[in-house]
Specification:
Shape: globular
Number of strands: 12
Structural class: alpha/beta
Distance between the termini: 24 Å
CATH class of the largest domain: Alpha Beta
CATH architecture of the largest domain: 3-Layer(aba) Sandwich
Radius of gyration: 18 Å
Number of domains: 2
Strand order of the largest sheet: 4-3-6-1-2-5
CATH topology of the largest domain: Rossmann fold
Helix content: 10-25%
């Protein structure tokens, strides 16, 4: 079924790393853009040969009271859409449909581990900001964000999450580097090594996992080995 296209105007573009951008948009002609934290949109633009290209991108922000949303994406070598969006200047428009997707928070709140690598942080950023914005959404529960990447320069939204952890004692932020530099004071290794420590003695909780297939599969397998039911594990893969 063909979805009607909406227009969004780029209002801000920020470099997160040498290949990653944070982009902020306003939906044109609508005072409010409704979505649920964790969902995605499908951006559609024509290449130079006129062929329409459509690519899906997770919304990297919580729903707001207005018409704004954020994206976080990597440049892909030889990829049309990722380079098109990363090169876009503020004031220019893109066309999209959505929101789509079922990678969202379950309505019954439980303690939860959020697990991400790379730009898999995008939908989790929206979920965590939404949860912590209203005490009634997180009161009485514990949350962990375990974020993994190779290098320190690729820790996206670090200042944001560190501030959230300072402001909310029930939110813990763990960054782990698989290739830590000399003098690195944080965690090291792969995310599942730290997920095991958190989840090992806890059963009545959930995990939200987003990233590439190998990481997602490794953490799903780990949690099942620890006795978790598959319904406690909510995930989205980017490949």
């Amino acid at each position: 079924m063909e979805h009607s296209l909406l227009t969004a105007r780029l209002t801000r573009s920020e470099i997160l790393s040498d290949r990653t951008k944070h982009l902020e948009f306003e939906v044109q002609g609508q005072p409010k853009f409704d979505f649920t934290a964790g969902q995605f949109i499908s951006v559609r633009e024509p290449r130079q040969d006129g062929k329409l290209v459509t690519r899906a991108y997770s919304l990297a922000s919580p729903p707001r009271i207005d018409n704004r949303f954020d994206l976080c994406l990597n440049r892909v070598s030889e990829g049309f859409m990722s380079n098109y969006l990363c090169d876009l200047e503020p004031g220019h428009d893109v066309h999209f449909n959505g929101p789509h997707g079922h990678f969202i928070l379950k309505p019954e709140r439980k303690d939860a581990i959020f697990i991400a690598t790379g730009t898999g942080i995008a939908p989790l950023r929206g979920m965590i900001h939404w949860l912590l914005a209203d005490e009634s959404r997180h009161r009485g529960h514990q949350f962990w964000l375990v974020y993994g990447t190779r290098f320190e320069q690729d820790i996206y939204y670090r200042d944001e999450f560190e501030q959230l952890a300072k402001d909310h004692p029930n939110f813990r932020y763990i960054v782990t580097l698989s290739r830590p530099p000399e003098g690195w004071q944080g965690a090291a290794g792969y995310v599942q090594e730290h997920v095991r420590t958190i989840a090992g003695s806890r059963q009545n909780m959930e995990a939200y996992i987003c990233g590439l297939n190998n990481m997602v599969s490794a953490n799903r397998q780990l949690l099942k080995e620890l006795g978790w039911d598959r319904h406690q594990i909510i995930y989205e893969r980017y490949d």
